[in-house]
Amino acid sequence: MPKGELASRLIVAAIGIPMAVIIIYGGGWYLGTMMVLASGVSAAEYYSMAAARGSKPLRWVGIPLAMALPAFATVYPTYQDFSQMAFALVLAAVLLAMAVSLWLRWPDGQPLVAAATTVTGAVYTGGTLSFWILLRALPEQSSTAATAFDGAVLLIFPIWVTWLGDSFAYGFGTRFGKSKLIKSVSPKKTILGSVGGLAGAVAVGALYSWLWLSSVPVCGLSLLAAAGVSGLIASVGQIGDLAESVIKREAGVKDSSNLLPGHGGALDRLDALYFTVPFTYALFILMQGLS
Fold first, then answer.
1. Burial (Cβ within 10 Å: 0-12, 13-18, ≥19) of residue 31
2. Separation CA 210–CA 230 (nearest Å)
3. How many CA atoms lie within 13 A of 143 on its CB side?
4. Is the pTM of the predicted complex or chain greater than 0.85?
5. Taking Cα atoms as reference points, which of 48, 79, 83 lies closest to residue 62?
6. Quick check: 31 and 137 in contact, CB under 8 A?
7. Phi and psi for 53 in degrees, rounded to 5?
8. Residue 254 burial (CB < 10 Å; 0-12/13-18/19+)?
9. Is the sign of the CA dihedral 160, 149, 74, 138 positive or negative?
10. Are residues 198 and 186 in contact, defined by beta-carbon separation less than 8 angstroms?
11. Tens digit of pLDDT for each residue in 74-94?
């Protein structure tokens, strides 16, 4: 990696990570606003890459939809309430995109592809980022003993596992990896890198539980349980990473945008988290139901 790019990465991380932690701790509309903005930017990047392949998504439908979903999650931070509002909103957007595409995209603009790309982009970005808000609110909804710190600890858990697991994968892959994982999707990812990332995620997940997560009311995990959950999260994160690589490869671009110096765009930075945070929320809801 060039020195200039490394310096840019470090500067962005040094500013962005503490700011994100503070916002996550604040929760509510602090986190909601961050997710609304991230959803809008992510959706715009998605539609730009789709347009590079000839699709003509309805940005004026998709971007507001992507931003509205985390806004609804902020107002209705339980899955039961959020899912009802989100379903109605997405259904309305599907019908609107289908209807409008008949006039604006037929006959040469592939109306079905345009409508599908519009809705998929919004749900992939704003829909998944809404679960940051739902996961942050889960401890305080589950126990009167939970605090804002507990909610922040729970949300940071999949972020910690995902990003550190990815760092282990990069380190192992660069140092030891030879056999490619899926060369046609991501030529730099190796089998040993993937295994190293999973092992690293298990280790850092167990450490996180020992330091913070085990004390979270209702949502706390033992060392062994955290290790197992971390392995699952890291596996899903690798799928999310590969999925975004496919999108970029089809669009013929290296990065989704140049938004973050040294890091690419929002899609590049959040690729695995679009998958892992909703997956983590589902896991904790399932474990609560089984307990």
1. buried
2. 13
3. 14
4. yes
5. 48
6. no
7. -105, 15
8. exposed
9. positive
10. no
11. 999 999 999 999 999 999 999
- In this predicted model, what pLDDT tens digit does every residue of 195-217 receive, in sequence order? 999 999 999 999 999 999 999 99
Report yes or no: 276 and 243 within 8 Å, Cβ to Cβ: no
pLDDT category at 6 given cuts 50, 70, 90 is: low
User: Rounded to whole angstroms, how far apart are CA atoms 249 and 265?
Assistant: 15
Number of domains in the chain: 1
Q: Which among 202, 207, 70 has a CA at the least distance from the CA of 136?
A: 70
What is the spatial distance between Cα 245 and Cα 229, in angstroms, rounded to a whole number?
Answer: 24
Other C-beta atoms closer than 10 Å to the C-beta of 92 total 12
Determine the pLDDT at residue 53. Answer: 82
Residue 18 is inside which H or E element, if any?
A: helix 3-26
**Structural tokens at position 250:** 């089809």
CA 25 to chain centre: 18
For 106, the domain range is 3-290
Residue with structure tokens 């309430």?
81
